[in-house]
Each structure stands twice: as structure tokens, then as C-alpha cells.
Amino acid sequence: MFTGIVAAVGKINTVTPLEGGHDAGVRLVVDAGGLPLADVALGDSIALNGACMTVVEKTATTFTVDVSRESLNCTVGLDAPGEVNLEKALTLAERLGGHLVSGHVDGMGEVRKFEPVGESWELVVEAPKALGKYLAFKGSVVVNGVSLTVNRVNDTATGCEFSINLIPHTIQVTTLKHLKAGSRVNLEIDLIARYVERMLSLKS
Q1: What domain count does the chain have?
Q2: Which one of 30, 68, 81, 116 has the fewest beta carbons within 10 angstroms of its own beta carbon?
């Protein structure tokens, strides 16, 4: 489990195809940036842009993960060198600063608008239609691994647009600063909303 509070911005240094041809995944070597790795062991989980990955190798400043073809098909930003938001798995001794996040990407959205509004920034993302029912005013959503609060929801013919206000601190310490209209992003809906839907769908 994670919180959606990004601990550091790292960088995918190398992307190497795994054996098995086109259907195989890739191996990523990630520069951890400011993320301490002293307490990270092989087999531990680290979220990259909101996608939970398992550490298979590490050095003092880098770690390596294998990304399956299925994960590559369901996410964005894990198939090429570049910056990524990083967060180590939550421990019971830590504060839940964001919200409960599983690190399982539910779908990819597309940025419709990313513009400054006063000292902050407005981010508008169109989510797939299937995810629209999980998005609510003042509810939580994860965008590229960042726990954010939804300010507005608008269902459209093709999906569901939601608006988020980003404070300067969030812009400064995450990769969201690089977004622009047309960018694709990883989305994870609120874990509680998922269970509520399941319970309501069952007949008593």
C-alpha cells in the first residue's frame, strides 16, 4: 500500500527488453534521486508514477525493476528514459498523508487543460468512461502516483472530465510540472469507492 505522497522524483536511466520477444516486458534501472534506499531490500515495492513495482536489484543510488508487457499496456511513462514520481511502500509506523493507494493503475487519462490560475495550476483530465462513476467532488484520485483532491466532475459523451487544483509545492516536488494538453497520465481511483460499488452491486 501507498499514500500517494511522492517522496522523490527519480529518473529511468535505462530500458532493456526482457527475453521473450514483443510479448515480453522491460527491465528498468532507475536513479532514485532523493529517495533513500538504505532500508530497501530485494523484493520490496516502490511505486513508479503510481504503478507498484518490485525491486529485483539495487545499488546505493539506483534500483532495478521488471515491468511486464501487461503493465506496459496499462500504464504510461514506464517504457522510456525520463523522470518518474517515486514512493516506497507504506509501513504501519508512517502517517497516511494522502489516501489509501494500492499502486494498481486503473486506467489512463488524457490531460485536457493545464494552466496557471493565480499562484496555483488547474489540471483538467479526461478519464475513461468506465472510471467516471468513481470520481466525486472532494473525492480522491491518484494521477501519476500523486494523491489529489477532485474539485469538479463533468461527465461527457466520451468519458469523465475532472478538475484538480495544484499548489506550487506539488508542482515543485513532482513530475506533474511537465504535463501539457494531450499528455497521458496513469489514474487510480479511490480504494473505498471500489469496495462501495462491489457491496452495492450484490443482491441481499
Answers
A1: 2
A2: 116
87-129 pLDDT, tens digit each = 999 988 888 888 989 999 999 999 999 999 999 999 999 999 9
Taking the C-alpha atoms of residue 39 and residue 139, their distance in angstroms, rounded to an integer, is 33
What are the grid coordinates assigned to 192, written together? 473505498
Which of 57, 88, 119 is the C-terminal boundary of a domain? Answer: 88
Element (H, E) at 200: helix 191-201
| Chain CA centroid to CA 144, Å | 3
Tell me which residue range forms the domain holding 58.
8-88
What CATH code is carried by the domain that includes residue 123? 2.40.30.20
SS (H, E, C) 100-163: CECCCCCEEEEEEEEEEECCEEEEEEEEEHHHHHHCCCCCEEEECCEEEEEEEEEECCCEEEEE
155 grid coordinates: 461527465
Q: Is 178 helix (H, G, I), strand (E, B) or coil?
A: helix
User: Does 93 reside within a domain?
Assistant: no
